[in-house]
Amino acid sequence: VLANGENAPIRALEEALEAHPWVRTALVYGTARPQVGVLVELDPEHAVGKGNQEADAAARNELWPTIEKVNAELPDFARLFKSMILFASPEVPIPRTDKGTPKRQVAMKMYEDDIDNLYTSVAAGTGAAVQFNSVDQESLQKMVISILHTIYGDDKEINPDTSLTLELGQDSLRATMTRTSIVASLRAASQSGNVPELAGFMPDDVPTLIAYQYSTPATLAHALHELVKGITRSPHDTEASEIELMRQLVKKYSDVLKSTHRPNGNALSNGSHNSGGRVSTHGSQQVVLLTGSTGAFGTCLLEQLVDNANVHQVICVIRSASSDQAALKARQVTAFVSKNLDPAPAHSPKVQFLHGNPSEDHLQIPEEVTTIIHAAWSVNFNLSLQDLVPEIEGTVRLLQHCQRTGARLVFASSVSTVMGAPPEGQGSRFIEEDEDAPLEWAVMGYGRSKAVVEKLISSAVHEAGVEAMSIRFGQITGDSRSGAWNAQERVPSIFRSATALSALPDDMGTVDWLTVNDAMQVTVAAAIGQDVTSATSASKQNVVNLVNPNKVPWLTAVKAFQAHMPSSVELLPTREWFQRLLDAQKRTEAAGDFERASVQIPVLKLVSSFGGRVGQAMAGTAATLLQVKEAIRLSQGQLLSATAIDEHTAGLYLQFWESQTKQE
């Protein structure tokens, strides 16, 4: 199990390598590490002596085609990089049992120092430097592309406009490796004295998230050029370019939706609802298409939909390497089991599985679908708006289907579409559901991408007669029965880090959390209920805000969790807590031990996302408040009795997180 909690399959790689004629033994390692590596014992004829770099390189190149074939079948997080191959020394053979089986744990202990040194070397970028002789954009661009070929493979087609995320499949590990190699290259060039412009430049000043902030070789090289030259681009300039892109996307896809044709070839007329010609069947026997069914929202939604007498069928769209129905069902079952939930809904005769992804233009949605609940989205707060364009395009395809058939669309949006709203004087900012929220209010690529979709949905309703709505979800917590709450999210990360930091912040704003059970009841009502005005032109913006109307202070939540924690966990002013977190980050980065430390202090991985919330708490700024009138109506008033957090539920969450850690 890697440091990020993912369980990397190892046998496929070991078996493939051991089938190679040069290899005697292959043992994959990587427990609690950022990436996998492999210890390879070669046969005596090809063994690599210590320090023999030429033989080492030759052996890596010989084995690499075999590894690439296996990598192609593995999930991104489990793929092996060439730099992580460690060859066993002929003088230190891998020990075996009497039956000839390798003693894995003994071998790992014998090579522990070598493995530690390799991880340290990779983290520091040792050996990853690429030579270049100028800081002009062309030279830096060539340097960046060379680095990317090293990371992603020489066979990858990489040009200046290649998207690191969309085309190369960049994840956090590869983004870190890209930045590390850039820093190593700049440092080597500076120390060589061959690039005078680097005199006095500090390579470590390269932003940690630079490979996410600039997602093509061309934009990345341009950013490096400006950084080296001391040209500072204000946050306002960066913000303005993102806002302009949002406007362009809204215009582009609004035009696409307006030009969508019905089967008879006529464009949809403004304001004509259910123009696909089918009579609405909402409230009777619904056929629901559900995306994101394996996520926290999706499993709860699937359970509630299966239990609903008005639902005839649920079609779960699942992204998977395999299109086999049994494999798709198995993945759905695993999603329930991993959350300590009964997998029975996955076996219901009501449920069918559809292999695909809305962002793929060949996804065939059955014509009988009456409602689409779109709950799938890339949840990575490092992604830019540009990275998330495929998600937007996928939603447009779903809207086009609704235009043609009269189906209703319910989109899982987020309060991050409005969390950048400016305060109103000294008071709280109150946002009504019918308020036309400017695009500027959205935060991060995640929130901005969903803000674009909110505008497109409203446009489709008012100008193309579609039934559709967006639900802005606030902080949705775990399952009130099993305590299943994604441990990697911001709030869980704070509480999971409390023991290691011996501290919790005393104020992170108002708590308006909802359990996933309460939130999904509202979602189901919006999807299959009758007279849902938020999905029609009777609503100005077609938005429902979904947060708990029963807000409590942050301190209430802290005390609920503290009741289950060691007495050594103290309550600190938010400023002091954040400084303690920053100090821990500096220590671990200096020691080259960030990934391992983040297992104990998971909030380290989210430091950059705390800026706004911590700053707000320090300044005493009032939080943004959301009107929840329509959500209360959809819940038939039940939302008014929802509890944000209590001691019992906090205990369930902590137990679930602990059980997940033990399984790892």
How is this structure best described in words?
- By secondary structure, the chain is an alpha/beta fold.
- It folds into 3 domains: 11-124, 2-Layer Sandwich (GMP Synthetase, Chain A, domain 3), CATH 3.30.300; 137-233, Non-ribosomal Peptide Synthetase Peptidyl Carrier Protein, Chain A; 243-482 and 515-549, 3-Layer(aba) Sandwich (Rossmann fold), CATH 3.40.50.720.
- It is 42% helix and 10% strand.
- It is built from 22 helices and 14 strands.
- The strands form 4 sheets. It has a 7-stranded parallel sheet, sandwiched between helices.
- Helix 11 (325-337) links the parallel strand 5 and strand 6 (351-355).
- Helix 5 (137-152) packs across helix 8.
- The longest helix has 24 residues, at 235-258.
- The protein is globular and about 75 Å long.
- The N and C termini lie close together (6 Å).
- The model is unreliable at 263-279 and 615-622 (pLDDT under 50).
- It comes from Tilletia laevis.
- Keywords: Phosphopantetheine, Phosphoprotein.
- This is Thioester reductase (TE) domain-containing protein.
- Residues 262-280 have a biased composition (Polar residues).
- Residues 260-280 are annotated as: Disordered.
% residues in beta strands: 5-15%
Structural class: alpha/beta
Gross morphology is globular
The helix count comes to: 22
Q: Give the distance, in angstroms, between the N- and C-terminal Cα atoms.
A: 6 Å
* Number of structural units classed as domains: 3
Tell me roughly what share of residues is in helical segments. Answer: 40-55%
Instruction: Indicate the CATH class of the largest domain.
Output: Alpha Beta
- Low-confidence runs of at least 5 consecutive residues: 263-279, 615-622
